[in-house]
Write a structure and sequence with these properties.
Blueprint lengths: L10 E4 L3 H12 L5 E4 L10 E4 L1 H10 L2 H7 L1 E2 L2 E7 L5 E6 L4 H5 L4 E4 H9 L7 E3 L3 E6 L5 E5 L4 E2 L3 E4 L6 H6 L6 E13 L5 H4 L2 E7 L2 E8 L4 E9 L14 H7 L5 H9 L4 E7 L11 E3 L14 H18 L4 H30 L5 H12 L2 H4 L1 H4 L3 H6 L6
Amino acid sequence: MAGEKAKNPGIAILGGGIGGLATTAFLYHEGIPATLYEQASELKEVGAGLVVAPNAARLLRRLGVMDDFLDRAVRLDTGWEFRRWQDGTVLSAEDLASACEDLYGERTYTAHRADFLSVLRSAVPNSDIRLGKRCIDLTFRDDDRPVLHFADGETVEPDVVIGADGIHSVVRRTIAEPSPATYSGICAFRALVPAEHAPAFARRNAQTLWIGPGRHLVHYPVSAGRLVNIVAFAPAGDDAVESWTATATPEEFLAEFEGWDPRLTELIRAGGTPGRWALLDRAPLSRWSRGPVTLLGDAAHPMFPFFGQGAAQAVEDAAVLAGCLAEDLDDPSRALRRYEALRIPRTSRLQEVSHGRSLINHLPDGPEQQARDKAFAEADPLVANGWIYEYDPEDVLAGSNPTR
């Protein structure tokens, strides 16, 4: 930006999850102060594991937190290892040990969500975070300046508002066209197994997906190999709720995978009481912003977890948003319009392919399933997903790779 340096706007970020912390961290990295408001009394992540593919790993490196992350993560040698539900026949696998870094400049990792959040937290000054601040409403003054209303009675009038406040976002319902979340008919089970209790096959540095009629199950090690993360997807019953803290019984989890490879039932038993929650579905939005207010992460583009890209897309959002604001501090509204124009095509595509994966993974045995398995065997998923892994916000901001 030529000429006199622009004045830093007052930026409020709602939500202290991965997207909110990543945004605060990238803005700080750009020399732009912001205040993060989180409704909880402490920053923490529930849930379990996540995959950190090259597109997310390179952004952690750019923030200067990669060494800390490597102390907590697991470097995968095999990824997207698809196995048949009955007997574990390998249908397809990514060679991450020898090819991933050569293709994309970074490896692929798995991590506990809490560890990932802690690494991002280390890149944010304490003074930029306000805890115990639950935003209950967003309104606009006559001059279109945003006003945040908090449950404790405080109001704040920032120059810019970034809604990183999740799928039930207060900001989203205020600025975007109505698009109520609908239940997908799918529920997820999750569990963490101490490594010493997990079968040897599940302790490998691999992301393994067992696929079968109406269901699939994923497992991989996290927390520097001390735990094995399990997440499984099955038809949602009437009692499934959308909550990270809801639970099922081990018997309910086992019943969903009755008749599957006995190695899986051994792993499920080792997981104890599982969590269970219903997956919500939202169609992609055509716009995320109103003036100096925008959305980010799940508030903008919640997606099924079948490509392992939910957290990565929030971090990409953060990097692109910070870059847009850094290049156009004089006009934040214009910067936000550029941000959403750069991000919506990519996140909408990922929402759509993640949605489609639920159908592909859950085919009943028969001709379609056999054709799918043959296609898996003939494709290299590491190369096929290159449009996901090669993405770099610096290229996007420079205009050399605007939509992929």
